[in-house]
Amino acid sequence: MTRITTHVLDTSQGKPAAGIKVRLDRVAKSGSEEIARAETDSEGRVRDWVQIPLAAGRYRVVFETGLWFSASGRETLYPEIVIQIHVSDAEPHYHIPLLLAPFGYSTYRGS
Fold first, then answer.
1. What domain range includes position 57?
2. Which end of the chain has fewer beta carbons closer than 10 Å to its terminal beta carbon, N or C?
3. Please, are residues 65 and 100 in contact by the beta-carbon 8 Å criterion?
4. Distances (CA, A) of 76 to 53, 80, 104, 106
5. 43: domain CATH number?
6. Which residues are bridge partners to 40 per DSSP?
């Protein structure tokens, strides 16, 4: 079974970003479908949020960052960050970290 996990770090404060709502969507020609929803834990992680097999194809990891920044009294340029990935049958794990700041972010494929 293919897994998708994530880890969000608030680089502006140098700590994990706990409490960010994160959604996983399957992308198809006819649109997208939500297949899972979670919230980052105290370490800024979402682990094993999908207990169903993920077929090969495109997926979107959607971070609701606007609500999270607003709750801490900070502004952000990015109210939502969407990272679209391609999942192949050959890979058992996709780790998608997000390095986050109010006015910038970066991501990469982790392990």
1. 3-107
2. C
3. yes
4. 35, 10, 9, 15
5. 2.60.40.180
6. none
106 Cβ neighbours under 8 A, 6+ residues apart:
98, 99
Asked if pLDDT for residue 89 goes beyond 90, the answer is: no
pLDDT single digits (tens) 39-75: 999 999 998 676 667 888 999 999 999 999 999 999 9
Q: Is 37 exposed, middle or buried (0-12, 13-18, 19+ CB in 10 A)?
A: middle
Reported residue count of the chain is 111
What pLDDT was estimated at residue 1? Answer: 65
Amino acid in position 94: Y
Helices (H) and strands (E) in the chain, counts: 1, 9
Counted domains in the chain: 1
Residues of the chain with pLDDT > 70, as a percent, come to: 95
Q: Cβ neighbours of residue 73 under 8 Å, at least 6 residues apart?
A: none
